Amino acid sequence: MRDATYSPSPDPIGPPRDRMERTGPILVAVDGRASPVPPDDVRRLEGSLRLRFPGREAVVMVAGWEGPGVALRAPGTAGDAPPPGRPPPPTLTGGGIPGPESTMGALLREMDRRGAAAAALLSGDVRDATRDWLGALLAPLLDEGFDYACPAYLRHKAEATLNTGVVYPLTRALYGWRLRQPLGGEAALSLPLARKLLSDPDWRRDPAQAGSDAWVVAKVLTGAARACQSWLGAWPGASGPREDASLALGRVLGLVFREAERHAERWQRVEGSRPVVTFGAPGALDGEVPRVSVDRLVATFQLGQRELGAVWGLVLPPASLLALSRAAALPAASFRLDDVLWARIVYDFAVAHYTRVVERRQLLRSLTPLYLGWVASFLNEAGALGAGAAEERVEALCTAFEREKRYLISRWRWPDTFNP
Amino acid sequence: MWEDTKRTFVESSERIVRAIARLMPTLLAMVLILLVAAVAAGAARLLVRRVCLRLDLDRRLREWGVALPAAEGRREPSEAISRLAGWGVLALGFVLGLGTIEATATSVLAMRMLEYLPHVVVALLILAAGITGSRALERSVLIGAVSMGIQSARLLGLGTRWLVVTVAVAMALEHLGVGGTMLPVAFGILFGGIVLALALAVGLGARDVVARSLERRFQEPAERGEAPAATDDLKHL
Fold first, then answer.
1. A156: three-class secondary structure by DSSP
2. Exposure of A137 by Cβ count < 10 A (0-12 exposed, 13-18 middle, 19+ buried)?
3. For residue A86, what pLDDT is reported?
4. Cβ–Cβ of A420/B64 closer than 8 Å?
5. Closest residue on chain B to A357 (Cα)
6. What is the DSSP letter of A99?
């Protein structure tokens, strides 16, 4: 369920903005790439916007395929069929959406054309109409002068493990801002930020990456835009198919590592991290633990340790390999991966992605057994903890990532000092 | 008698000198061709090395797992390729040089070698592509199989590699005309035998396993009276 209370925290990013560009309409784009958005949902959304923001024009459009790319259409207008041979697009809430499949470019152009004061990109999942979730997402932009609002949802500790174990700690350590759920295609932006992003030369230089959610987040966190995060209640749930770990890793981490490479000069000067202005009540969900076989996760880790040693040896230093071989000898019930070891593994893979010691897709897929091993270790430790205690555990992991950042910097600057 | 011996000796010497004088231009031409070929070989080696460096071939081959990581004393792939190109040009020059010799048999041999040369080049290219592709595929299959939790991942990877290498060797030998029709027939028998053996093994030996696996795939857990597979609830995103 969504929460409508605001609790601004001190220390925002960037200088305050003037409000001259914040009097235009509100534009909301709903993701209709995977499945059509019912017109009733669109009308309900428009009504909610007008009710919540009286005096402002509200426009809701639907994102759909147009040829090989994505375009915004008026509700009820039939779009093209998905390009033949293309697999189902990743869900917006899941994130890790590459540039060509992203709706962000179309949204930014439409926003600029209309002079919209704020725009939001949302998934087509069913939401609780009794909650003011739209207000929680857009009010920081329209009333508080922020440029970017990152949605965050209440989730169970055993969900979104890729974000918990890799993307959040890595993004926080690199860019120095504690955006709890940086991964996700949903976002809300202001017109000044939209115009700045539209004029970025990456649309021409790197079209495969520009417009992806990782690209937007990195640009915001390394720029002067005022960013915040809005807790919108319980996660509405992905409407797409569950994704294999290997595919998810390859897709998501490829984008995140690529952004780390793009902003290397910037993040090497960042130390520690600071909280981001937060609206809504943060937290996690308690309740029924999702059924996960730790034995199977550990078995995959042990299989990887046995068979992928040659590949891991090109990426990881001998000390890490030794630690992994010791971990593989542990029984599943007491399986543990140290936070420092895990942080160094992620950093080593980031460096390997940058230096291309192994073909990038193969590299990211070879991380799968290690990632599943970390998930098993995390579930063993946090499984018995409550939501609050589990979040503290995640905080400890993030601290380890921040402490080991020097290791990343030295490996990044001098990759040849480690020569397997 | 002494006069006859002297006359015979002089005439023989004159014949030998005349024969050498007839051969000298040919030998000189051959030495000249070999010198030009040596220079051309050096230039070809430099050119190929520059092209390989420009294409960053060594790094790409290491990236795909075809070449081993760089190490002291270990020759780079581009160095090996450029040396091969150099020796190839030198060998071509030698064959051309043979053609200057007027002896019919030698000229015919040189011509036949020149005609065979393109086949050798194409066969080498097929072999190189096969070996390169096999290593890259082996690593891909290994990583993919491990990610899926398949215990025989290494066997799958090795099998893929040797399959690709076998096909490449067969294609190269056929291009060289080695073995005639015997090679394709032998290859067909080998492949057909492997496929038949696998079909029999799966159809007879693993019949129950396949049936159970298909049942699990197409039936809902509730129909089987089981709880869902435990990893189904793990949401990575």
1. strand
2. buried
3. 61
4. no
5. B63
6. G
- Residue contact A314–B227, C-beta within 8 A: no
3-state secondary structure of A220: helix
C-alpha A5/C-alpha A2 separation (Å) is 9
pLDDT of residue A373: 96
Range of the domain at A398: 294-413
Task: Identify all chain A residues contacting B140, using CB atoms and an 8 Å cutoff.
Answer: 362
The pLDDT tens digits for A140-183 are 999 888 999 999 988 888 888 999 999 999 999 999 999 999 98
- Let me know whether A178 and A220 are in one domain: yes
Residues A243 and A103 in one domain: yes
Of A162, A163, A362, the CB nearest to B143: A362
Q: CA–CA separation, A43 vs A56, rounded Å?
A: 16
Residue B75: half-sphere exposure toward Cβ, Cα within 13 Å: 8
8 A C-beta contact, residue A245 and residue A364 = no
Residue A275 and residue A371 share a domain = no
Domain boundary among A250, A279, A308: A279
Please check whether residue A8 lies inside any domain of the structure: no
Q: What is the ipTM of this complex?
A: 0.80
- Across the interface, of A95, A242, A307, the residue whose CB is closest to B235 is A242
Q: How far is B161 from chain A (nearest CA, A)?
A: 16
Are A188 and A137 a contacting pair, CB within 8 Å? yes
Determine the residue of chain B that is closest to A165 in CA distance: B236
Please check whether residues A302 and A247 belong to one and the same domain. no
Do A211 and A336 lie in a common domain? no
A238-279: pLDDT as tens digits: 545 567 888 889 989 999 999 999 999 999 999 999 999 998
Cβ neighbours of residue A406 closer than 8 Å, sequence gap 6 or more: none
Q: Are residues A221 and A350 in the same domain?
A: no
State whether A298 and A401 are in the same domain.
yes
Chain B residue with minimum CA distance to A296: B231
- Give chain B's contact residues with A (Cβ, < 8 Å): 59, 62-65, 69-71, 136, 139-140, 142-144, 146-149, 151, 153-154, 227-237
- Which of A256, A279, A302 terminates a domain? The answer is A279
**Residue A17 carries which DSSP code?**
P
Q: Inspect the interface and report whether the beta carbons of A96 and B237 lie closer than 8 Å.
A: yes
Match 């690529």 to its residue by tokens. A258
Q: Give A160 to chain B, closest Cα distance, Å.
A: 4
